């Protein structure tokens, strides 16, 4: 049964790398030598957790940031960012100047705040989200030749320089071995569907509108065929950026509860949206559920194209990136993680009426 007309797809894929434990970058706070951030519970009235971005506030002038020169500038210092963004007006994450992308916009803010060139920052994101896709917990890293006494000022400066639809939620020091993309053990995406005859205007940017009544029972059964290690060649669109990626991925969860959620080791270009598109056809009862293994076995993108086109991007959101505790440990001699700072008012300057 679909609660309040909203359906969430949960998709989870995990890297088949070694490692004893895994923490997620999402919600939470730093604990000891490692950082574990957890997702809030989904609202009872929506399919997935709202990706509401808080206001940045903070310093408008990054020149007031206090920096400590490093003894060995050649080694540099690495910093981890957790970023939320509304992808509506952006051409995805990957760098390009026109139309603007998340990476390009973030790099412009970083160059102003750090006074470094783009080539020196070496900004890398965990997931190269596509045009129109949102994120609550995109993870990225960059490097500087200097250390910081504290991260609150650079954090406030970045959010003061960024547009309101992009926010740095956290900034923390990272060990040299940490890599936002290659250290990731798994990524979690949500896909939100609003299933009613009339679309809720407040959900229009973050949920796909399906006017067809969806059978979530058969969708759940069909989604189970995706779980495991498979060749997903039939579910990838051609991309000019990835060369010839490995089509074999492992999916650990594909849940159809209050949303579609998928977690996995990594995703091919538009793979999630293609899987969702097929599940939508199955949910409409236009296709049988056992068509999933048949298309997987074909390893042919043209086979999927006979039945479904990619689902629209605006229903998709990156909600968690998971790393091992080893990669999330805080290096010695580093400033504390910044989660943003609250401001206080010592005296009210406006009269009460």
Question: What is the topology?
Answer:
Blueprint: E1 6-14, E2 23-25, E3 28-31, E4 34-37, E5 67-68, E6 77-85, H1 102-114, H2 118-121, E7 124-125, E8 134-144, E9 147-148, H3 152-161, E10 166-174, E11 186-195, E12 208-210, H4 216-223, E13 228-231, E14 248-264, H5 271-283, H6 291-298, H7 301-305, E15 316-323, H8 325-328
Parallel strand pairs: 8-15, 11-12
Antiparallel strand pairs: 1-11, 1-14, 2-15, 3-4, 5-9, 6-8, 6-10, 7-8, 11-14, 13-14
Helix pairs in contact: 1-3, 4-5
The chain-level structural class is alpha+beta
Q: What is the N-to-C succession of helices and strands?
A: EEEEEEHHEEEHEEEHEEHHHEH
Shape: globular
Q: How would you characterize the largest beta sheet?
A: 6 strands, mixed
| Cα radius of gyration in angstroms | 21 Å
What's the total number of strands? Answer: 15
Kindly report the average pLDDT value.
Answer: 83
Low-confidence stretches: 15-22, 27-74
What does this structure look like?
- The protein is α+β, with helices and mostly antiparallel strands.
- 18% of the residues lie in helices and 27% in strands.
- Strand 7 and strand 8 form a beta hairpin.
- Helix 4 packs across helix 5.
Which keywords apply here?
353 residues, alpha+beta, single chain, 5-stranded mixed sheet
């Amino acid at each position: 049964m679909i609660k309040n007309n909203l359906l969430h797809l949960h998709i989870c894929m995990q890297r088949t790398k070694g490692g004893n434990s895994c923490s997620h970058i999402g919600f939470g706070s730093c604990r000891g030598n490692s950082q574990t951030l957890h997702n809030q519970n989904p609202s009872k009235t929506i399919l997935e957790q709202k990706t509401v971005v808080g206001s940045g506030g903070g310093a408008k002038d990054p020149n007031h940031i206090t920096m400590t020169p490093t003894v060995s500038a050649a080694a540099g210092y690495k910093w981890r960012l957790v970023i939320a963004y509304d992808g509506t007006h952006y051409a995805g994450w990957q760098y390009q100047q026109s139309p603007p992308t998340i990476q390009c916009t973030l790099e412009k803010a970083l160059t102003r705040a750090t006074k470094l060139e783009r080539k020196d920052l070496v900004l890398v994101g965990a997931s190269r989200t596509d045009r129109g896709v949102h994120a609550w917990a995109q993870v990225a890293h960059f490097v500087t030749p200097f250390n910081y006494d504290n991260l609150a000022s650079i954090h406030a400066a970045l959010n003061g320089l960024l547009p309101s639809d992009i926010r740095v939620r956290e900034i923390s020091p990272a060990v040299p071995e940490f890599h936002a993309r290659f250290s990731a053990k798994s990524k979690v995406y949500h896909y939100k569907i609003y299933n009613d005859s009339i679309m809720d205007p407040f959900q229009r940017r973050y949920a796909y509108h399906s006017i067809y009544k969806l059978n979530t029972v058969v969708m759940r059964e069909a989604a189970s065929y995706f779980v495991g290690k498979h060749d997903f060649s039939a579910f990838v669109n051609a991309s000019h950026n990835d060369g010839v990626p490995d089509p074999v991925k492992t999916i650990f969860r594909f849940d159809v509860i209050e949303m579609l959620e998928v977690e996995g080791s990594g995703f091919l270009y538009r793979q999630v949206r293609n899987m969702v598109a097929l599940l939508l056809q199955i949910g409409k009862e236009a296709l049988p559920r056992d068509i999933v293994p048949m298309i997987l076995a074909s390893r042919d993108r043209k086979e999927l194209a006979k039945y479904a086109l990619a689902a629209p991007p605006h229903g998709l959101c990156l909600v968690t990136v998971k790393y091992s505790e080893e990669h999330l440990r805080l290096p010695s001699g580093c400033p504390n993680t910044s989660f943003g700072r609250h401001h206080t008012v010592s005296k009210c300057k406006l009269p009460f009426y």
